[in-house]
Design brief:
Residues 181-195 have a biased composition (Acidic residues). The protein has 1443 residues and is mostly helical. Among the domains are: 1-148 and 199-206, no CATH class; 226-380, no CATH class; 384-494 and 515-535; 1316-1443, no CATH class.
């Protein structure tokens, strides 16, 4: 009776029966609401009435109460309608609003739904027809509807856009403002005008308890009610259970045993997984189908996605709760597979496939997905595992970039697992997929040359990671790849295929892979060469990954640490990209840490890191300083604490030792590092003392090197040990030149801190050395510099007096000695070359410090060395110098080359202090550059003149052409030296880009020495172009004139040049065409889009228009200029970058929303630019091109080919705009289009001729042997056979009579072109001219300008039957060449032209169809007189039609 009393609370008996029937009739969808009075009575006590009904119904649904009376009998005995119960319950949970429902409404809805589900769990519900799909599905949705919206919003905020909306390589869009996002989330649905309800924690707890009760009731129902015939209900259950798994955080790990009672479960995720497990039982339908539904829903949890029922699910932020839900889902799938065994393997394979296919391109999600795949793959036996790996191998070759990247992640995750044992039952083909060798060689290394930069870089990164794994198999597999004996990988090259995945996004079915084509694999011997190419890849990320891979290969000694391999890392420290430079520095650091004892690695480290301290990018500079500090400075300890066993200390001193010896050329960069460190106050007193403690130990040279860098910025210290070392060096002189210079540098730096006695003692020592002339030249200049440091005083006069005294004494000694050698009669008998050189060099160094002590006699002495050994005096006996000096250009010198070379250096130093002397010597220097045969002399003269340019800029400016002429010197050393010094002068703006300097400079881009060419590129792009961004565009047009030596233009190429200079820098002629194109391409590559746009117009107006306006003649020189111009206009480098920005489309995802948006923006941008460029073409380019085409056709110019090539390129870029280009003249557009088609066919013919092979046997009886080249099935030349069975002759060979044998076409050498018999092209060209002449005779107004403008024929071939049967339907009783009224392309009729080599022009049916067929004579026969054709001009027809 309790049940009846509880039902009375629901007013079941008072409910109108008509209303109940109406609700059932309308299938619970659109019925009238319950009477308001009845509803008020039911809800008066809240949800208590529904709880009471639930408690009373519960015993009837449990097995323990199976002996009780049937509930349906109770209903019948008490006159209670089951339909009324269901109708009343449904009223309270059907209309609940997810946003505006109050706490009471939500609780009532949940308990009403629980009561309805409990009714379904009572035996006999089927007979009483209690189940209704709408009500069942609504009860399932109550969980989401009644759950508080603020908690749902929290989960929504965790959802983020798919990573495909933020593809790699693009700037991320600005994040949406928080308030805007909340506004979007909080926007009410249409009709929901009431305020949203907010709940306290106690309210939320009540809702949760009611929700748990509802879910538990649902689980009881699933154990009782089979859903075998209700697939939609199964799907809805799976969906709601999947969503419940993430409603609450999981504490600990869940267990999935069958023995656990539902009543003991307390969390919603625990209940949800129990429900998913129940759905997998056979009770609810086909086991595989139910399993498919469950795993389909868990798929999105594993992928960390929300809204799995949507076509484009959104991603969730990988928070700890999301990661825990993912891990729990993976464990649940593993548990199901362990329980159901073999039956679940096909569905598990489908799950794995969909994880792969629906993966997004974000690192954290890919990593998580790869780990999920590996964990689930572990549940597969070997056969299934190998089968899936075969599928994954095909998946890794799919056109989608994200698939190929994710396949690499899976391969790396699998490599971290132990390798599976080989299964004897597997075939060899499948067994190969179990090996780690397959993963390394095919899955990872096989993607090294992928067309997408993202995949290439990731593959190389994975290759580096393979070497860091604990697995020895992976390392051995890589070693095998780079082994000289390696010949093949695990799989044959023929199995490497690009594949296409065929799938439907929302169908959880097996994903098939179809082959797209073979991908060839490279020879194993080229692995290292390919890796080097990847280091120079255009994409920054690829270069970084390649550097990491190369470092790992070197680190683990897979490839030898040779200078060639290590130089790759060092060179990349100067990469254009900042990130690549930093990566190269880090790789060198890692490699040095791994192999600190390798001298080759140490040298490579120095070559890469030390020069980086002069980098313009601050971050690179800081990285280099950090590496040097960590490796060298931080390891310098006191000598007493030095231990040779300490690897780091030993490494630091080894590196410093290399800087003192083999790598001393890096010292100037090393100095910059110490300048930067001094600003940071890194050199403390303890550091200096530690250095000083090594000056007399085994590391003395290295210690002096560092002291020479830090002494100038060090604090005042006790330098007694340094002075003791100086005294020891003075006594023994047993140090190297490099160390001697370092010691002198230290003495000069500490000179201000020394007392006068010590200074005087050191000055005496230095003067003693200088006057002995026994010191090396490097030490002489350093000694003079130290003299200046020691004599420097507060007053400039005192300093100069000191220098005049000491340096003047040295100058006097040098003058006396040189006079004794040059002016005395027996001087040459005592001539000592080494001593003369030292005196000359010392004289130059000392003279710079005391110019007042240098007399005119010294000038004459030095100049006489350059001229001859004859005594020189002034002409009139006075002290004044003659206006010119008889140097080597007037009389050969008897002095050795080394003496003359040093004499030029000394004379240059004298000129720096005496302007008058410089003015007199500059002409002699310039003449010496032209006539001297001595390399050392020319080199030193270039150095002197460039130094004088800094001192006397205006004076030397006129000699810049003489200096730049050395850029084409026969010696690479002089070319390189000149290039460097001119770059320095241009950087400091001592020299301007005047005259021919620019063109001579850029001509070094094609220098025969690759090293010099690369240096020129660096100087132009990284040093000079930054200072003058319009430099290339300003000189580009004149480059075309200059490199073709064209001087007939009134403006361009008019600067003066000597004949020898013109010849030396000339790039004219076909032999230098490639060099000119290389220069043009280089310049255009560094144009901006604005400059590219403008240069096209300038070329048309300044070059092409000059020929059209007859300003320039169309002669041989003009043809060469035009040929280069059209080649330049056809280059891809001249195209706007925005017009071909879709080259990286393969790196974008097809279903990527943001990528699609970016693509739309690019298309719009491209369209806008295209419109502007189209207007420019129509107004400025096309008229000039067409006019020039007519002129070239009249003159039969060979340049017409290049013009047609340019038009072909232009029409390919603007194929859709051709009608707009020629909108004013359709006939011209038609003619031009046909000319292009004919030109393309001629190009194809030439390619066929070039590829045609010469017959093995000689021709018989002098006949020419020819045949049609064999065509492959995919060849463009293949054509179907006609119905008559006679094969159609190819248009690429000489046509033969019908029925004649096929013959090879033998190519002729160019020299015999004139004696060669006419080819098919020539025959057809002759026919074209004949028809054209006939047409012009019938034209009322003849025009010679258009004689060759409209080609009317093209080669074609037909079977013999077409010539003899005379089909009137195909030819319409008119001449074949007569145009139709609406003809858009003038041509011979397809399949109706017969080309026969008979002696007569008549056929068997001549009397009937003679006017319908065009006959041409054989090339072997003489040409007959032209016949009159019935040809009428289409223009006349058009005019007649208008009349």
């Amino acid at each position: 009776m309790e049940l009846v009393n509880a039902l009375e609370l629901l007013q079941i008996k008072t409910v109108n029966k008509v209303w109940v029937d109406t609700v059932w009739d309308f299938e619970f969808t659109d019925a009238e609401p319950l009477d308001a009075g009845i509803q008020g009575e039911i809800t008066e006590n809240g949800a208590e009435a529904f709880r009471a009904v639930y408690r009373c119904l519960l015993p009837f649904a449990t097995d323990s109460e199976a002996g009780l009376e049937s509930v349906w009998a109770v209903f019948g005995e008490n006159g209670i309608s089951v339909d009324a119960i269901v109708a009343v319950l449904s009223h309270f949970f059907l209309k609940v609003n997810a946003r505006t429902a109050t706490l009471s409404q939500r609780l009532i809805a949940l308990h009403a739904g629980s009561s309805y589900l409990l009714l379904l769990a009572i035996p006999g519900n089927i007979a009483n027809k209690v189940f209704h799909p709408v009500l069942f599905d609504t009860c399932l949705d109550l969980v989401k509807k009644c759950w508080p919206q603020e908690m749902a919003k929290k989960r929504k905020k965790d959802a983020i856009r798919s990573s495909q909306s933020d593809p790699k390589g693009r700037k991320r869009s600005k994040p949406i403002r928080k308030d805007a996002e909340e506004m979007e989330i909080d926007e009410p649905e249409e009709g929901d005008l009431e305020e949203e309800q907010f709940f306290s924690p106690q309210d939320i707890l009540q809702i949760r308890e009611a929700t748990v009760a509802l879910v538990k009731t649902l689980l009881r129902l699933l154990t009782k009610l089979p859903l075998r015939d209700k697939p939609q209900s199964v799907q809805n259950c799976a969906q709601i259970f999947a969503e419940l798994t993430s409603f609450e955080p999981i504490i600990g790990e869940l267990t999935f045993t069958d023995r656990e009672d539902v009543d003991h479960m307390k969390t919603l995720p625990e209940l949800a997984y129990q429900g998913l497990k129940l759905l997998c039982s056979p009770k609810h339908g086909n086991e595989n189908e139910a399993m498919r539904q469950v795993l389909h829903r868990l798929l999105y949890i594993i992928l960390m996605m929300s809204d799995g029922d949507c076509a484009s699910p959104s991603l969730l932020v990988p928070s700890p709760a999301v990661l825990a839900s993912r891990d729990q889902a993976i464990r649940f799938v593993s548990h199901i597979v362990d329980e159901l065994k073999e039956s679940t393997l096909p569905i598990l394979r489908i799950l794995l496939q969909h994880i792969c296919v629906q993966m997004v391109d974000r690192v954290e999600y890919r990593t998580s997905g790869a780990q999920a795949v590996v964990k689930l793959l572990a549940k597969m036996p070997s056969a299934n595992y190998a089968s899936f790996m075969k599928w994954l191998y095909g998946y890794s070759r799919n056109p989608k970039v994200v698939y190929r990247v994710f396949a690499l992640d899976v391969a790396m995750a699998l490599l971290e697992q132990p390798e599976r044992e080989p299964d004897p039952s597997l075939s060899p083909e499948l067994a190969a997929f179990l090996q780690h060798k397959f993963l390394v060689q095919e899955m990872v290394f096989g993607r090294r040359s992928d067309r997408a930069a993202t995949v290439r870089s990731h593959a190389l990164t994975c290759l580096a990671q393979c070497l860091e794994l604990q697995s020895t198999i992976a390392r051995e597999s890589i070693q095998e790849l780079f082994s000289p004996s390696a010949t093949q990988t695990v799989l044959e090259a023929g199995n490497s295929e690009e594949t296409n995945i065929q799938k439907t996004a929302l169908n959880f079915k097996t994903i098939e892979i179809s082959s797209k084509g073979d991908i060839s694999t490279s020879d194993m011997k080229e692995m290292m060469a390919l890796l080097k190419r990847r280091v120079g890849d255009p994409k920054t990320n690829v270069r970084k990954a390649a550097l990491q891979a190369l470092m790992s290969l070197l680190k683990h000694r897979v490839v030898p640490c040779s200078e060639e391999n290590l130089s790759i890392l060092s060179d990349r420290c100067r990469d254009p990209a900042v990130s690549v430079k930093k990566k190269a520095l880090q790789c060198l650091m890692d490699l040095l840490t791994a192999q600190p004892k390798s001298s080759v690695v140490q040298k490579a480290w120095l070559m890469g890191v030390v020069p980086a301290v002069s980098d313009n990018e601050t971050s690179v500079l800081e990285k280099a300083l950090e590496c040097l500090d960590h490796t060298i400075l931080a390891q310098i300890k006191n000598y007493r604490g030095y231990k040779a066993e300490d690897i780091l200390q030993k490494l630091a001193w080894d590196l410093l030792g290399l800087l003192c010896g083999e790598s001393q050329g890096l010292s100037r960069y090393f100095s910059k590092a110490f300048i930067a460190w001094s600003k940071q106050n890194k050199f403390t007193s303890s550091f200096i003392n530690n250095l000083i403690s090594h000056v007399e130990a085994e590391h003395a040279p290295a210690a002096w090197l560092v002291l020479s860098k830090v002494a100038s910025s060090s604090p005042r210290l006790d330098y007694s040990k340094i002075l003791d070392a100086w005294d020891n060096m003075v006594r023994n002189l047993n140090v190297t030149v490099v160390t001697f210079r370092h010691v002198l540098s230290v003495i000069g730096d500490i000179a201000p801190h020394l007392n006068e006695d010590t200074k005087s003692r050191i000055v005496d020592d230095i003067m003693k050395w200088l006057k002995s002339f026994t010191m090396p030249l490097e030490v002489v200049s350093a000694s003079v510099e130290v003299l200046y440091q020691l004599g420097r005083a507060e007053k400039v006069e005192d300093t100069q007096n000191f220098l005049n005294q000491h340096c003047g004494e040295v100058v006097s000694i040098c003058e006396s000695y040189l006079s004794s050698i040059i002016l005395s009669e027996d001087g040459l008998q005592n001539f000592n070359e080494d001593l003369v050189v030292k005196h000359l060099f010392t004289l130059g160094c000392a003279a710079l410090q005391c110019p007042a002590r240098v007399g005119k006699r010294i000038f004459l002495l030095v100049q006489s060395i350059l001229a001859s050994n004859v005594e020189l005096q002034a002409a009139d006996g006075s002290d004044e110098l003659p206006p010119t000096q008889p140097l080597s250009q007037f009389k050969p010198s008897s002095m050795p080359t080394v003496v003359r070379a040093h004499a030029f250096i000394t004379l240059g130093k004298l000129c720096l202090q005496h302007e008058e002397l410089a003015a007199r010597c500059l002409p002699a220097f310039a003449r010496e550059l032209e006539v001297s045969q001595e390399v050392a002399v020319r080199n030193n003269v270039v150095v002197v003149m460039c130094d004088l340019c800094v001192r006397y800029t205006n004076m030397v400016d006129r000699y810049i052409p003489n200096i730049s002429a050395c850029l084409k010197d026969c010696e690479p050393l002089i070319r390189e030296q000149t290039l460097i010094m001119l770059t320095n002068l241009l950087q400091e703006e001592y020299v301007k880009w005047k005259g021919s300097l620019f063109f001579r400079f850029v001509s070094m881009l094609v220098d025969p020495e690759p090293k010099i060419a690369r240096l020129c590129e660096f100087c132009l792009v990284h040093l000079l172009l930054k200072r003058n961004p319009i430099m290339f565009s300003q000189h580009f047009i004149e480059c075309i004139f200059h490199f073709n030596c064209y001087e007939k233009h009134e403006k361009y190429n008019k600067f003066p040049q000597t004949p020898s200079e013109r010849t030396r820098f000339s790039l004219r002629g076909s032999t230098h065409r490639g060099k000119r194109m290389k220069i043009y391409k280089f310049l255009l590559e560094h144009f901006t889009d604005e400059q590219r746009f403008n240069i096209i117009t300038k070329i048309s107006q300044n070059i092409l228009a000059s020929f059209v306006d007859v300003v320039l003649p169309l002669d041989e020189e003009g043809y060469e200029l035009l040929s280069d111009t059209f080649e330049v206009l056809s280059l891809k480098e001249i195209k706007l970058s925005a017009m071909h920005c879709s080259a990286d489309r393969d790196e974008q995802e097809e279903d990527d929303q943001m990528a699609m948006a970016n693509a739309v923006m690019q298309v719009a941008q491209k369209k806008l630019i295209s419109q502007v460029q189209k207007k420019n073409f129509v107004e400025n380019v096309i008229p000039i091109i067409i006019s020039l085409k007519v002129m070239l056709e009249e003159k039969r110019s060979p340049v017409l080919r290049e013009l047609m090539g340019y038009l072909q390129v232009m029409m390919q870029d603007y194929r859709n705009e051709v009608k707009d280009f020629f909108g004013a003249d359709e006939q011209l557009a038609t003619e031009l289009e046909y000319d292009l088609k004919k030109f393309e066919k001629e190009q194809e013919l030439e390619r066929q001729m070039a590829n045609c092979s010469v017959a093995d046997a000689a021709p018989v009886n002098g006949e020419r042997v020819s045949t049609t080249p064999a065509t492959t099935p995919g060849s463009s030349q293949a054509s179907p056979a006609p119905a008559g069975g006679q094969g159609v002759l190819s248009a690429m060979v000489t046509p033969q009579p019908p029925g004649s044998a096929s013959r090879f076409l033998t190519p002729r050498p160019p020299s015999s072109a004139r004696r060669q018999k006419p080819t098919t092209t020539k025959v057809l060209t002759t026919a074209q001219k004949m028809v054209e002449r006939s047409r012009l005779l019938k034209t009322r107004v003849p025009s010679t300008a258009n004689r060759n403008a409209t080609p009317l024929s093209r080669p074609s071939a037909i079977p013999e039957e077409a010539c003899s049967t005379g089909r009137s339907s195909a030819i319409h009783n008119r001449a074949i060449s007569t145009p139709q009224w609406n003809m858009s392309e003038l041509t011979f009729g397809e399949a109706v032209s017969g080309i026969l080599s008979t002696s007569k022009t008549e056929s068997k049916n001549a009397g009937k169809d003679d006017d319908n067929v065009l006959y041409l004579m054989s090339p072997d026969k003489p040409t007959p007189p032209p016949r009159q054709w019935n040809v009428e001009s289409p223009l006349l027809r058009r005019g007649t039609r208008r009349l």
